Here is the input.
Amino acid sequence: MPLRERARAVLEAPRFQQAVIAVILVNAATLGLETSPVAVERYGTILTVIDHAALYVFVAELLAKVYVYRSRFFADPWNLFDTSIVTISLLPVASGLSVLRALRILRALRLISVVPSLRKVVTALLNAVPGMTSIVLLLGLVLYVAAVMGAKLYHDTAPDYFGDLPTSLFTLFQMMTGDGWSDITREVMDEHPAAWIFFVAFMLVCTFVVLNLFIAVVVRAMEDEHAEQSAEVAAQEAQAVRATNDAVLAELAALRAEIRELRDRVPVAPGG
Here is the structure.
């Protein structure tokens, strides 16, 4: 077997994938421990060695993939994702560039490209982005209209929440997440008892309608992704069955040819 084929067999082996997942998890754990001054003081050298060893493993894996898949390596977006993360980790970290040091934890995101179930979820989310565009526009329109109304109606009553348009937008976005919306509503209702109509209507539209539309689009995208993968698996199984049938038919044809040849070789008995 050629060296490239043996390397491919190793890269695609389940045990190798499990080993890569283990390295990612261990590296993520060590990067988390580096946030503890006590752990750094006691095990700083060990943590650094593990971190560098994990980085070398990731680099070796990417180089092996480039060697095995050659130009096809760059056609896979997940390979480009892994390459970008490892490249960020290879950037020199100076004393003043703490951001680059913090970005090393991005290596944990490699689990997305290694674990098939996570990869399916992310793929479905990316496929759902076009369908979310109209919902985002609808949500932005509702927020803008409500923010203008809130700034007009409650500017003097609650200037900290509705003093101007940007403040009103932020307040309504905060309410949409469910954070402190009742406190804001009660403060405004002390001066405007009927304000509950505005806030309840806003919460119903944003929280229970628009956000549920987001969920529906994502679920639909995940269902489509699952159906597409099921169709691919079915097509592969059908192709395997056809290949098996073709092989069986070829064997039968060869046997028939051999039997016919044997019959031709057997001499016919006189008078038979």
Notes: The chain has a mean pLDDT of 84.
